[in-house]
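Q: Two folds, back to back.
A: First:
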Amino acid sequence: APLYAVRPTATGDITLPEGGATNEAIAWSTGRNGAYMQTPVAYGEYLYSCRDNGVVKCYEATTGDLVYEQRLGSGRDGFTASPIAADGKLYFTSELGTTYVVAPGPEFEVLSTNELDDICMATPAASAGTLYFRTRSSVIAIAE
């Protein structure tokens, strides 16, 4: 799937010219590097995307330059949920219920992994220091 970085001032028809990767409305784009179902998350100076096979890509948000590409899990875990950012961390949750906590920034670092012990396909939510996960059988709230 393509990935487009649309400028906040964009209005009207923002269609790229044939073969083009940028215009007045689109800061940058990639032809086939976007995620299949998941929505990327912008955090700080970077944009993070996770494909269904667990491959995380980090881009410079303003230029689209690829900073890193790393895999979470075995490649067979399945990632349907979109990543979220909260409290200085990125959260990527696999369909098997493993949440990978990743440090934001130009260096890939998994800070921890946490098991939900249930299938999780929904994007988590964060509010007031609490993370919420909807699994196949429960809604789980995690706070310090």
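A: Second:
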Amino acid sequence: MTSTIRVLLAEDQSMVREALAALLGLEDDIEVVAQVARGD
């Protein structure tokens, strides 16, 4: 049984944030649950 890793991406550059989300989305056991431009 594998559990899903849930990730919140915090990155101010939208292109980098979207690229990371796309790459992580290719993995079966990783789910990007939120994306934010600021971490504070």
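Q: And?
A: The helical segments are 14-25.
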